[in-house]
Design a protein that fits this description.
- The structure is a single chain.
- This protein is mainly alpha-helical.
- The protein contains 10 helices and no strands.
- The chain folds into 2 domains: about 10-65, Arc Repressor Mutant, subunit A, CATH 1.10.10; about 75-230, Tetracycline Repressor, domain 2 (Orthogonal Bundle).
């Protein structure tokens, strides 16, 4: 794709597309997100996007430099959906927990896009707001900036890592996903106590636990650790 992007005031298309809609950056991003969810990463091409929009593929160049620029916009859209209608409550722990769960849920809702976007840094508006909001919560606890940044790093990476892991499972064909879950019963549940005493003792618990995401408990562990490191509580 070309590296040229039309300046913002000149982007609006004068005529509607074949489908009667007027192109916009948001419409392109939402259409691309839908294509990726329906057909996977291979759908993120200008040709397929143009066909879905009912427009000449070259029209996408007016909004995005290349497909990677569009992918960053998709990543930023997922972050924006995580923070939609979110407002701080004044309780730093409750707010951080809510943000983590929102990020995790937004990426799980779009597993194909999550696989492409969870590891990207966009520098766009939604991500900037997220970074500012999380740092504000951490600094409100009285931590020095260096520690706030380290906790921010751990918090965000934990949420995105679990989101990518869970998205990868959700992106599997249903039969493969079910087969993976059954391994905990058909293989681990039948290991003898003589050779694997710890697994044998906990096999039913493992089979039940591994059906769900480990993120909620991991998030609580992280927040417990952050709370334990509050000034005056060490």
């Amino acid at each position: 794709m070309t590296q040229r992007v039309v300046p913002e005031p000149q982007r609006r298309r004068r005529r509607p597309t074949k489908q009667g809609t007027v192109l916009s950056e948001r419409l392109i991003v939402e259409t691309a997100l839908r294509l990726v969810e329906e057909h996977g990463a291979a759908a993120l091409t200008v040709r397929r996007l143009g066909a879905a929009l009912g427009a000449d593929p070259s029209a996408v160049y007016r909004y995005f430099r290349n497909t990677d620029d569009l992918l960053l916009a998709l990543a930023d859209e997922l972050i924006g959906r995580s923070f939609k209608d979110w407002e701080p409550s004044g309780d730093w722990r409750a707010d951080l927990g809510a943000i983590g769960r929102r990020i995790h849920a937004a990426y799980r809702a779009h597993p194909q896009a999550a696989l492409l976007a969870a590891h990207r840094t966009t520098g766009r508006d939604h991500e900037t707001r997220a970074v500012e909001s999380i740092l504000a919560l951490l600094r409100s606890t009285g931590r020095p900036d260096g520690e706030a940044v380290r906790i921010y790093h751990a918090f965000v990476d934990q949420a995105l890592a679990f989101a990518a892991l869970d998205a990868a499972e959700l992106a599997l064909p249903a039969a493969a996903r079910q087969a993976d879950r059954q391994v905990w019963r058909t293989r681990y549940g039948r290991l003898p106590a003589a050779t694997h005493p710890r697994i044998a003792a906990t096999a039913p618990l493992l089979a039940a636990e591994m059906r769900h995401s480990g993120y909620p408990f991991a998030l609580d562990l992280l927040l417990d650790s952050v709370e334990a490191r509050l000034p005056g509580r060490r």
